[in-house]
Amino acid sequence: MLHNSMTEKQLYANIKSGGENSLFTTYEIIFQQLINGLIQGSFYALVALGFSMVYGIIKLINFAHGDIYMTGAFISFVAFSIIASFSEGVVGVVLAVIASMLLCAAIGFSIQRIAYKPLFDAPRLSLLITAVGVSLILQNTVMVITNGQFMFFHSAIDNMAGVRFGENIGISFLEIAMMLITAVLMIILTLFISKTMWGKAMRAISTDKDACRLMGINVSKVIGLTFMIGSALAAIAGGMAVIYYGQVHFFMGYIIGMKAFTAAVIGGIGSIPGAMVGGLLLGLLEAAGTQLIGSEWKDVFAFGILIAMLIFRPNGIFGKTTIERM
Amino acid sequence: MALMEVKDLSMRFGGIIAVDDLSFEVEEGSITALIGPNGAGKTSAFNCLTGFYRPTSGSIYYKGEPLVGLKPYQITYKKVLRTFQNVRLFKNMTVLENVKSGAHSISSQFVLGALLRTKAQRKEEKEILENALSCLEFIGISDLKDKVVKNLSYGNQRRVEWARALAAKPELLLLDEPAAGLNAEEKENLIDLIRRFREELGITVFLIEHDMSLVMKVSEKITVLNFGKKIAEGTPAEVQANPLVIDAYLGTDDDKEGSAWLK
Amino acid sequence: MEKQKSKFIVNSKKLGFFGDVVEKCYVLLDNKKVKWMVFAAILALAILFPLISTNYWISVMQNAMFFMLLALGLNIIVGYTGICNFGFAAHFAIGAYVTAILIRTFEWNFWLTLPISLVASIIVACIVAGPTLRLRSDYLAIVTLGFGEIVRITARNLQITGAASGLSGISRPELFGIHLTTISHWYYVFLALVVLYIIISNRIKNSRFGRALEYIREDEDAAMAMGVNTAKFKLFAFIVGAVMGGLAGSFFTVRMGAISPQSFQFIMSANILLAVVLGGMGKIPGVLIGAAFIAIFPELFRDIPFIGTARMLFFGILLVVVMIKRPQGLWPERRR
């Protein structure tokens, strides 16, 4: 992973050397990891939102969601390589991500209709296995197209340009933009869920699907919309990841899918603000973990958090305890 | 001392009070019923007795031992068996396999026994099989033993459920609306069967029921529940004459229930 | 529930002629003599196979049998009990690494590593499933998936597991004085293991333990009402499955002579899951056929350019289609 001025390796080496020949001060390291954590956390949060929304509404852990993120990244990449011939800068990149958003919304909707809908009344295990199948389909479609290779992304955007606070640390405009976009999307989504009819319908369905049918809510339409919004958000995260990290790989969605699920669990699965806070929190925790125990253990650390959460606080920070009625 | 004793039982779901300070007793060897109009809290009370809900407050004693806080399977091990309102069988398995499940709580072989197929294991398997067959015989559905449950009629599925409960050699049988969905003839058979449970097998029966005619015919003591509260208790005749009970049933908007009651 | 009922009726009608044939086969197989004869014939064929085949196909079949072992293990968890395990490769990795490390680093005899591998599998299964089985079943799905990654990453990071390049030069064991070196030797070792695993699966299925697992799969509340301590039985199902996977891993190690984290990727877990689902969860012959399909399919299409690389894409589609159209798997269901 590339960061603006310090790579993770350097940071790690710095700590290992006990700070003696250190290039960076503790303050600089903390600041840098804070930014890393927030950026990574923004990705997690955006993907976690889709996870949480879908889980809230049909109680399915959509394993394919991480792969929607990957697909979003891949489509952004392809779209940009087409657009790049006439617009290589910010406009081109934004257009590419928007295209990817729309396509992924359509893909998310189709997945729901074709693969999940016929199984809504079947045992839960069938739905979970189907989700694994969908995940394999998305991964391997991209794998076949890219021949399993890493795709590298170059745009006219300068990843390094930004505000400097001293010699070694700073924050790039790209990072600022990404965090702003994430924040704005979350505000829009929160307003959508709490203020609009569609949002109310979503919340109503997550409480009682059958009652909603009786009240004349088009449940299947609302579920479709939920998938579309979730997928579009994942696609934006994927698009931003391409620009930020500069590469696409067919397997990139697998790990982030699980991380996003962890984020959703931390915040309380099914809860929208929970997914946001959970995402950012996980990003920061991971940054701290990377700093303390090394980047090669980062994923193990994150899954450790997941398992610990499930054991000690399965309802998350924002989740409610419910009594299951028979 | 009563076989089962319920004291000040309350069950709340958020702001809703489903069961409110309910107390009653089930005498050994009796057929006791808990009745009440729709939404009176019968099923909630029932789920507290069987360990599926943990009551908000109050206590339940079986043979003087507290049941509150036990898991459903632990209550089954005390030979208190239940059936379900909407038939919960193992649908893709055969009738025989379903009835064998009843013997789970009275048998003990585990992983190693299964793998090594020890002498004790084979002996126990034989006993489980014989026990299951005799229960099928008792209910009168021996001919269905190899049928897959999901292909059976609703009435037969109910009978399989009874056979399954019977296979656990229960001392107290808790029936959750056993007559729901049965036709007139099947109901007659059910009344007969409930009596045979007690007469031939010495099982104490407790049922919650909607169907008044069945309850009046079969039970000796009735507790009436309305809005979670006990409003009457006594023999069928006493309960039938109680003005509060008549009010509770006629007071509902459901006309059918009211007229059924007056008959 | 109504919906499900009507679905089954449609399905059985759809089967038509094929269904009739299957029904007749079942009636035939109900006869114990016929059943044993069929079983003996298949076994005889399997025993004679290396005599009439090329080394290439012997090794393909041996690989298929290895998949059968894993699939039979996962079948106890997913098929019998109906609980998720999407990281089954991790259990197989545990057994594989325990044996590899003991042989290479501590120079143990292979046969002595098996009990250690068994104990390690039990401990790991308890750690993964113990705390999470109490929770919603779908949480277990993600925990097993995450656990699969933890094991793989750990193996890649540690020195004792040989890091990314893994461990190699693991010596082959002896059995009855025969040094197991040729492909035929291993074919027979795995054949014996498959027979053993089938017996184990069958014995579990027809026992109080196995029935309790199926009760849990069918209706957890009803199982609990019949006295099944569901948490305990689910844990033991998980343990039995994990041990079967772990021991298969131990044999895999000595057969290959080398292992690396590459062998335990998510694709491996997905393949085993597909084998179980494809054949029909819980049905032993179905699971065996599913596993054989998973192992043989890539060999058949190895040289055909597109299908060779797109194998997992095809498997993914198959998984979805089977779940939607025939959730009971390809092996036909008993209908009475």
How much helicity do the residues of chain C have? over 70%
Q: What number is the mean pLDDT of chain C?
A: 84
What would the principal axes of the Cα set say about the shape of chain B? Answer: globular
CATH architectural type of the largest domain in chain B: 3-Layer(aba) Sandwich
Count of runs of 4 or more consecutive helical residues of chain B:
11
Strand content of chain C: under 5%
Provide the domain count of chain C: 2
What are its keywords?
heterotrimer, A: 326 residues, ABC transporter involved in vitamin B12 uptake, BtuC, two-stranded antiparallel sheet, 3% strand, disordered N terminus, disordered C terminus, C: 336 residues, mainly alpha, 2 domains, 14 helices, 2 strands
Describe the protein's architecture and organization:
The complex is a heterotrimer of chains A (326), B (263) and C (336). Chain A is mainly α. Chain A has one domain (34-158, 171-312): ABC transporter involved in vitamin B12 uptake, BtuC. In chain A, 71% of the residues lie in helices and 3% in strands. Chain A has helices at residues 8-16, 26-58, 65-83, 90-116, 124-146, 173-195, 197-207, 209-214, 219-245, 252-267, 272-293, 298-312, and strands spanning 151-152, 162-164, 170-172, 247-248. In chain A, the strands form 2 sheets. In chain A, strands 1-4 form a two-stranded antiparallel ribbon. In chain A, strands 2-3 form a two-stranded antiparallel sheet. The radius of gyration of chain A is 20 Å and the shape is globular. In chain B, helix 5 packs across helix 6 (154-166) and helix 10 runs antiparallel to helix 11 (255-262). In chain B, strand 4 and strand 5 (65-66) form a beta hairpin. Chain B has helices at 42-49, 72-77, 95-100, 111-116, 119-139, 154-166, 184-201, 212-218, 236-241, 243-251, 255-262, and strands at 4-13, 16-26, 31-35, 57-62, 65-66, 80-82, 172-176, 204-209, 221-226, 229-234. Chain B folds into 2 domains: 1-79 and 170-263, P-loop containing nucleotide triphosphate hydrolases (Rossmann fold); 90-168, no CATH class. In chain B, the strands form 2 sheets. Chain B has a 6-stranded mixed β-sheet, sandwiched between helices. In chain B, strands 2-1-4-5 form a 4-stranded antiparallel β-sheet, covered by helices on one side. Chain C is globular. Chain C is an all-alpha fold. In chain C, helix 4 runs parallel beside helix 6 and helix 7 (183-205) runs antiparallel to helix 10 (230-256). The model of chain C is unreliable at 1-13 (pLDDT under 50). Helices cover 76% and strands 1% of the residues of chain C. Chains in contact: A-B, A-C, B-C. Chains A and C meet through helix 5, helix 10 and helix 12 of A and helix 6, helix 11 and helix 14 of C.
